[in-house]
Design a protein that fits this description.
This protein is an all-alpha fold. Helices cover 76% and strands 0% of the residues. It starts with 10 loop residues before the first helix and ends in a 6-residue tail after the last helix.
């Protein structure tokens, strides 16, 4: 027998069951949290790049590898965003294929290339992922606020990777 009593729809129910579509006003706190977390995520890139110029060989080698590994993780995350969007079932299932490509690019860069060359490959991977996101945005598949943030985050990550790759050897 169905329960006909009115029930409170929690925020979790809304997210899980898609009970309502968020309005722009409802989304503002989510944009702010994504922005805070996104820019916070650039800090390890910048920190590793800065540490490359410390003059300490031990610090530099850790920063070099840490930036490459972190970049691989974040590039994988950038692709995974498209997996989540594809699950909404309002776009081509081909987006599932793209969603794993950044992770594969990152993995190959880390295991197949010299560490400094891998940083360059990862920078190219971020640029490629940004380009795909830009095309998705032009087709209306990604919101404006996200793409504005992606411009800045990709620039910060890519510049930091290049600064790390081209840092002089310490010692």
């Amino acid at each position: 027998m169905p329960d006909d009593r009115p029930r409170h729809i929690s925020h979790i129910d809304t997210l899980i069951r898609g009970a309502r579509v968020m309005s722009e006003a409802d989304a503002k706190p989510h944009h702010m949290m994504a922005t805070i977390m996104g820019f916070g995520g650039v800090l390890p890139f910048v920190g590793c790049a800065v540490l490359m110029y410390s003059g300490s060989p031990g610090v530099s080698i850790v920063a070099l590898f840490a930036n490459a590994v972190y970049a691989a993780v974040i590039l994988s995350f950038v692709g995974a965003i498209h997996w989540g969007l594809a699950m909404r079932e309002d776009r081509s299932s081909g987006w599932y294929v793209w969603s794993v490509m950044p992770a594969l690019i990152a993995w190959a860069a880390i295991i197949l290339l010299d560490i400094r060359v891998s940083l360059l490959a990862l920078a190219i991977g971020f640029t490629l992922a940004w380009s795909v996101d830009r095309q998705a945005h032009l087709r209306g598949l990604i919101p404006d606020w996200y793409m504005r943030m992606r411009h800045m985050l990709t620039a910060g990550a890519t510049i930091s990777l290049l600064a790390t790759a081209f840092a002089p050897a310490a010692g």
